[in-house]
Task: structure prediction
Amino acid sequence: MARPQPISTGSGETQIVVRGLRKQYRVPRKRAGLLASVGSLFWRQHKIVRAVDGIDFTVAPGEVVGFLGPNGAGKTTTLKVLSGLLYPTSGEVSVLGHTPWRRQRAFLRSIALVMGQRSQLQWDIPAIDSFTLCRTIYDVPERQYRETLDELVDLLDLRDLLTKPVRQLSLGERMKCELAASLLHRPSVLFLDEPTLGVDVTMQGRIRRFIAEHNARTGATVLLTSHYMADVVALCDRIIVIHHGHLLYDGGLAAMTAQLAPFKTIRVDLEPGTVADSPDLWHAYGDVVDAQNGKVSIRVPKAAAAGIVARILSDLPIADLTVEDPPIEEVIDLVFQNGDRADPPPGVEAPQD
Result:
């Protein structure tokens, strides 16, 4: 299967521009044991780890883009560069016309970074006090602050949480307050790194709905990383996939599925008492995924699915039949598999000291 190619985003107006972004680290290597520890004092080996290795993409105003990859792919490193927390090794980056690592005041007032595993709220004081601190840091006018706070309290249902010390909040409640704190200064670009990490399914849905509503109300540009594909499917029309620091795919979810998984799964429940779940029988219709106890799943080419469904309904006593696209997790995994076959290892040996 051919490796997916990046899809051009066009030459229109952009808020985020990344060209040839590279970030690498020189890290020591040491074998286990006392002798190795003593030897490393005099003779140390290093390797170069390429966290991000020459990626290119652009994001237009108002887009909600999923930024995907397995652990260690370079997602968080990229977001940290885009938000000005890290200097790149090389490459060009522009966010709202600013170079992020210069950390100009106008840039910092226009972006927000929310990290699911990091808290910007003060642990031992109520959330509302942290909100007040954010207002002071960003020099938000009192009237604008009150208007924005009232909107966020209503959208995120924060009324009963504002006076609780942050340490007494559940993880889902804290994440809602984190989102509110990040949006009080009305940023036009929002970087979300695992915003639903560790929260329950109900809270995940609430956070997704809020992000979608906020994007619709304000037109904010959102770059989202998440290991929960439900977040991506619900929020993102476009995804960027990276692996080993390389860009593997940039385009729509539907286009990726058509490119990598041009098949559908037909699931059939036979009428009670029907003995027709032998794999040999179903091979005439497609590739058998599972066949037992009157329930059969077969995989068929997408273009042929309608005709095969008609044949099955005509040939056999069917109690129920469904036609499904492949799960997005399965399609993303195919992208990663292609990347593993095509890419070199993420780290290479450096000259010894």
